[in-house]
Amino acid sequence: MIHGFARLALAAFLTGSISGPVLAQAVYVVSQEGGTLTPVAPPGAAIPVGKGPAQAAAGPDGRLYLAHPDTHTISVVEGSPGRVVARLPFAGQPFGIAVARDGRSLFVGDWSGHRVVRLSSATGAVEGSVAVGRDPAGLVLDGRGRIYVADRESRQVSVVDTATMTRVGAVPVGEGPFALALNPAQDRLYVANVRSGDLHAVDTATLAVVARAVLGGMPYGVAVSDDGARILVTNQQAGTLVVLDAALSPVATIPVGRYPEGVAVSHDRAYVANWFSDSVSVVDLATLTETGRLPVGEGPRGLAILSPSKEAP
């Protein structure tokens, strides 16, 4: 059943009546138990993608790539019209995933193999591999050709040069690092540590921790506003989205659904995947309030932002 405010939010999306700029980007959520990929902004029909998708990443060509840890595959989905066009085999347990800026390669964290693998996005052929810490979770790629990897059971972030597929650094962080996000300038990497209940800011030039915020609970997802002024962290245990400024001082705590996990920013809104509520919260970044909650498939966990007009360099 759609709650009243969710119905209003959905109608506003469809009619374009929500204030702010028209979104050129499209926001998708992965539902692990439901086996679906659902567009939530603008809203659309759920796309069946197969068993257990855990994370998704968007390429520059209108495609999304989904990691399926249990079936050892990666689904390739055309965002429009919305269909699975290929399944790439993966010799391991794929979890975190990122796409090269030119769209030709994928970078996949092998959860059980403690490595990151570079694959051809067209064929799935292995192009390189590098050992990292235990249970690599979130991956984020910068503009200089480096991948940052949250090594959950090693209490560190590995730094990998994607050209040579070698590990060039490791940054000690909190306990249970899971999600990562870069600011727009890419001089700060934010690390959400699930078990120690804190957030670290890492200087990407020196690979040193320069700030820490104690949040409590279970910080599970992290994202940064387009202007870099707001850091958004989901607190799974508390059912909230915590907003901090760039110095990691608290700004607001916003109630969302139960067990929020992934969070993503598209222009003036944030989207939060509420794992136990089977919904996505829509948060207005100007007012710092939840303005809608959209029902999606069972067990939403990860989000991806697709920019169809984006051109690879």
TrEMBL record:
Domain of life according to the entry: Bacteria
Listed transmembrane segments: none
Keyword Ribonucleoprotein listed: no
UniProt cross-references to Pfam families, sorted A to Z: Cytochrom_D1
Secretion signal, residue range per the UniProt entry: 1-24
Keyword Signal: yes
Keywords, in A-Z order: Signal
InterPro entries: Host-pathogen_enzymatic-act, N2O_reductase_N, WD40/YVTN_repeat-like_dom_sf, YVTN_b-propeller_repeat
Protein name: YncE family protein
Lineage of origin: Bacteria, Pseudomonadati, Pseudomonadota, Alphaproteobacteria, Hyphomicrobiales
